[in-house]
Amino acid sequence: MSTYARVPLIGLWFAFLALPLAGWKNSLWIGLGCAAVVFVVSAARASAQSGALAGPAQRIKTGFASAWGFIEEKSYDKRYLSLFLLLIIALPWTLDRYSTDVLVITGIYVMLALGLNVVVGFAGLLDLGYVAFYAVGAYSYALLNSWYGLSFWPALGVGVASSALFGIILGIPVLRLRGDYLAIVTLGFGEIIRLVLNNWDNVTQGPNGILGIGRPYLGEMRLYKPMHFYYLVVVLCIVTIFIVNRLDKSRLGRAWAAMREDETVAECMGVNIVYTKLSAFAFGAAWAGFGGVVFSAKQTFISPESFTFFESVIILCMVVLGGMASIPGVMLGAFILTVLPEVLRELTLFRPMLLGGAMVLMMVLRPQGLLQAKGQRHHLERDKPESKTGAGR
Amino acid sequence: MLELRDVHFYYGQIHALQGVSLEVRSGQVVCLIGSNGAGKSSTLMAISGVNAVSRGEILLEGEAIHAQEPDDIVRRGICQVPEGRRIFPHLTVLENLEMGAFLRNDAGGVKDDLDYVCSLFPVLHERRGQRGGTLSGGEQQMLAIARALMSKPRLLLLDEPSLGLAPRIIETIFGVLARIRDEGTGIFLVEQNAHLALNFSDWAYVMETGRIIMGDEPAVLRDSPAVREAYLGE
């Protein structure tokens, strides 16, 4: 089919999709809008392919490409990093309480997304029940605090440890599972944890949740303002980024990459699959535990409702949208998917639809995610690839 | 060097290996020929420890290794080049080679071996920054062999290295295999291409439905009417 012949068809298709949601008139506009977007995109692609992209269009394109390349390449450059850090530190002073609170949530999601990225991005194990570990972390603090008065800092350790333990508990039965089977089991696991929390009334208080969870103290200072949590989350995020980055470049990170690419061959190369898989689940879950404890302390109230399957899906979307296995990408994904819905409050009803649309568009246009993981991450000898000419010799 | 004694393996309900016994003497090239589904790859995977043997034993220099994990087998000096050039497609050539040396701690020795395999297959050096999946079929097979060599094996297990490759490429690859053999690495070769395998080996086994039905010198097998009819197409 020619490039332009499909334009009206795509418009019609989207109009048809929107029909039950938006009524006749709006569907017509949605159809026309989609057709226009497709037209512009295919025209741009066609002219780029024929090399006829001249003048300003070409400049915009190369400008955009180089700006993007800058973000992808320079993210670890020290100068820009310190500038970025300064901005992060100064940010809450320029914002109101509400926006700061949104950023705290963003930070928690950054931790969660980075943790899930260990499992999905690095090790290639599709986990649809990741929120279960978040719940384990959150409930460990909530329960230990309300029963035994355990304070925040030791609870942070306990939360991480128990989440990691649950990661291993999930990991053991799925050692021999791959791909879609694994996804189904993890999904089930997530639901089991949620249902247990929901129904084990005399421990978790069921759907009523746990109220009055204690705030953390830093020395004598009680942390309760959004700004306090903001800095707490920033520090924890930095710790997370540091460790996850180290993990990626470690021997274990290489084993994960090999297992992601081809499990059997990795095994033949001497990668211990049991250890490698369990460590991926444990390390991934640990960050969810981290996030969970902070979430409990920030909200002072948790209930199973915060840990539904949809949360797992959102976190997975952050990883996929940002760029699997890419640490800055995953952070960007987490940022976009928490901040954007807040900015577009009026469109709350359309959130799942917009999210779905964004995912479809990403898979079609940029399947590697917004920021692609660096190709060459591990070096024996540091040198640039010389020839990029295919294999035709 | 390596000996299989009455090895049984079940793939689910299927009795894939029904008492396989064979021997690879050190310094020898031994081949295993047979048709599709005879159990050749299952045999290699059993040696590598990926397939758990249900009965029988596998001995490496007299020591039982069939209960060990795949990484222990690699550590003991047996490395496999799996069928169908299964390289890591999204890792670069260099990263693929590094994965071969995953269990080694001697950075210097790894560096030397990297130079060594690059001298065996110069094309890999040229393409070291490229992703494995962008290589041609022949180059991928070379990479798979080089990757296994990076583990510094005493015994190399090769699963159908000629599969789907042009004759000229096969010639190059077998030229290198001959060099590896001459440098003292044992080779256990699984092939469907019986001509090629019999010409290259010092000893040959024929496998059918999970059993070894013959084992002799290649010249003897080449003269056997059964082998000629079934595997040499005469």
Query: What's the tally of helices of chain A?
Result: 15
In the CATH hierarchy, the third-tier topology of the domain at 1-70 and 187-234 in chain B is known as Rossmann fold
Helix tally of chain B equals 10
Distance from N terminus to C terminus of chain B (CA atoms, Å) equals: 34 Å
What is the molecular shape of chain A? globular
The SSE string of chain B, one letter per element, is EEEHEEHEHHHHEHEHEEHH
Q: Report the radius of gyration of chain B as a whole number of Å.
A: 17 Å
Note the main sheet of chain B: 6 strands, mixed
Task: Describe the structure in your own words.
The complex is a heterodimer of chains A (393) and B (234). Chain A has 15 helices and 2 strands. Chain A is mainly α and 393 residues long. Chain A has 2 domains: 2-49; 72-380, ABC transporter involved in vitamin B12 uptake, BtuC, CATH 1.10.3470. In chain A, helix 13 (309-322) crosses helix 14. The model of chain A is unreliable at 376-393 (pLDDT under 50). In chain B, a hairpin with a 2-residue loop joins strand 4 and strand 5 (63-64). Chain B has 234 residues and is an alpha/beta fold. Chain B has a domain at 1-70 and 187-234: 3-Layer(aba) Sandwich (Rossmann fold), CATH 3.40.50.300. Chain B has helices at residues 40-48, 70-75, 93-100, 107-120, 122-126, 137-149, 167-182, 194-200, 218-223, 225-231; strands at residues 2-11, 14-24, 29-34, 55-60, 63-64, 78-81, 155-159, 186-191, 203-208, 211-216. At the A-B interface, helix 10 and helix 11 of A face helix 2, helix 3, helix 4 and helix 6 of B.
